[in-house]
Design goal:
Helix 3 links the parallel strand 2 and strand 3 (102-105). The radius of gyration is 20 Å and the shape is globular. The protein folds into 2 domains: 6-222, Aspartate Aminotransferase, domain 2, CATH 3.40.640.10; 226-299, 2-Layer Sandwich (Gyrase A, domain 2), CATH 3.30.1360. The chain contains 9 helices and 11 strands. It has a 7-stranded mixed β-sheet with strand order 1-7-6-5-4-2-3, sandwiched between helices. The termini are far apart. It has helices spanning 35-50, 64-75, 91-97, 116-121, 137-141, 193-202, 209-221, 224-244, 271-279, and strands spanning 58-61, 81-84, 102-105, 127-130, 150-154, 171-178, 181-191, 252-253, 260-264, 284-290, 293-299. By secondary structure, the chain is of the alpha/beta class. Helix 2 (64-75) packs parallel to helix 3 (91-97).
């Protein structure tokens, strides 16, 4: 399984800095003797069944940061190149640089999408990380569709209570949300074909029993009606903000993208939007090449 994944070339393994230093146990869990191990296996099975995915393609993580460090530590060696389109979470560059690899910011055009001209011009990479605050992985995915790099999609901000894999991506970072407190992420997972290879390398997921029980409880409650109610709540809040916030010339709402919306301000100053969103009780922040220009992200939760 591992040898069939070109991005996990085993000849590169001795050069990896952090594969054995991640915050995960080196000792496999014996499910027959370990009740916590059985609980985690049950959780993985339940999540896999809910999203119609083979259980070996679900790798549970305690946080999005742990998941990213796991991927970078398993895949990257010094001097590798990683492509990402900023703005992006601050933890991404740190995780990449910590392995000795470098990253190339391919940039974004006025619409907020990754710059296709730069993507086409740059050479090969070991890893592509797609997604950004207010941009689900699906929104960035098509920009990378004709490349052979390992594609990791960050879909933690998607409009799913129970995270699903992004079609076409080898890895999707997804979150499980509490249906009773939808702004609260309970657990994270790496989903998709490459997750099976990572499970082979890293061994089974280890979680505190309380976390696993809470996640199982959430998965039991989440059903089609709960998901529909969640999507309707997000859409109603998005409609309210779009109706009440007047945009200036050079600013434009981006398409609906999960639990956040984004306003492209690459052609105009977006500072006044922050005050306007704050007046409406919405949490917002600005990202861009310099203050006030770039993307303004606003939470719908």
């Amino acid at each position: 399984m591992v040898s069939s994944s070109p991005w996990l070339d085993m000849q590169r393994r001795p050069k990896r800095r952090h594969l054995l230093q991640l915050d995960r146990s080196q000792r496999p869990v014996a499910a027959s003797a370990d009740p916590i191990g059985r609980l985690v296996q049950q959780l993985q099975q339940r999540w896999a069944e809910r999203i119609d995915l083979p259980v070996e393609q679900v790798l549970l993580c305690r946080s999005a940061e742990e998941a990213l460090r796991l991927v970078c530590g398993a895949v990257l060696i010094p001097d590798d190149q990683v492509f990402l389109a900023r703005p992006s979470p601050t933890s991404w560059p740190a995780a990449i640089l910590g392995t000795g690899a470098t990253f190339i910011d391919v940039g974004r055009v006025v619409s907020g999408r990754p710059d296709p001209a730069v993507i086409k011009a740059v050479g090969p990479a070991r890893l592509v990380i797609a997604g950004a605050p207010a941009l689900t992985g699906a929104a960035d995915h098509h920009a990378w569709s004709d490349r052979d790099d390992l594609l990791l999609i960050d879909a933690c901000l998607s409009a799913h209570l129970c995270g699903k894999p992004t079609p076409g991506a080898e890895l999707t970072l997804a979150a499980l949300r509490d249906p009773h407190d939808q702004g609260n992420e309970v657990l994270w997972a790496l989903l998709g074909p490459a997750a099976a290879a990572l499970r082979y390398l890293m061994g089974p997921s280890l979680l505190p029993a309380a976390w696993a029980r809470r996640a199982l409880s959430c998965l039991t409650v989440i059903d089609r009606q709960a998901q529909q109610d969640f999507e309707e709540r997000l859409q109603a809040r998005a409609d309210e903000l779009e109706d009440k916030v007047a945009l200036s010339p050079g600013q434009s709402w981006m398409p609906m993208a999960g639990v956040q919306r984004a306003v492209s301000c690459l052609a105009a100053d977006g500072q006044q939007l922050l005050a306007e969103f704050n007046r409406l009780g919405a949490s917002a922040e600005a990202h861009g090449p310099f203050p006030g220009r770039g993307l303004v992200h606003v939470s719908l939760l």
